[in-house]
Amino acid sequence: MYIIVGLGNPGREYAGTRHNIGFNVVTKISDEYNIPINIKEHKAICGKGFINGQKVLLALPQTYMNLSGESVRALVDFYKIDPEEELIVIYDDISMDVGRIRMRAKGSAGGHNGIKNIIAHLGSDVFPRIKMGVGGKPQGWDLKDHVLGRFSDEENEKMRKMLTKGCEACSDFIAYGMQDAMNRHNN
Predict the structure, then answer these.
(1) Residue 42 known to be catalytic
(2) Which candidate in 19, 42, 121, 185 is catalytic?
């Protein structure tokens, strides 16, 4: 079984923000593979289904971004998966332009508080992840205002294509493994 976690913040006021791009990718996967996300468990809203013949659990932690590790740890423990091989976390990255994605098998939090909390709860930084480019903060802006802001009209088309790329990257991770998926999607 694979667990695909999209990071974000629950609540209407955060819907569509840059920080919720992980939620958006998982919702896209849900739509593409007809996996309803309607089960509340382990501090997340989840959906169970299949991608490429493999059982998957889609998860949207409801702990708010900075406490995402609480939900991820509970899911990993309950389903007894190996986070190094069967977990993938999708989240926003301000160091990449809107539309770019980057897959990694491990790494530091890079200043992302949600990833920092997951690393703390798992006790390891070795777990697959997909970083979704949301663009850097404009000069003079507060970082919080930027990540909790929405994409501009001109960024929206790139963002929609990026959601499709994220969905395809998850599918390839499940079908071919992390190394091959990275070769296909990291450009």
Answers:
(1) no
(2) 19
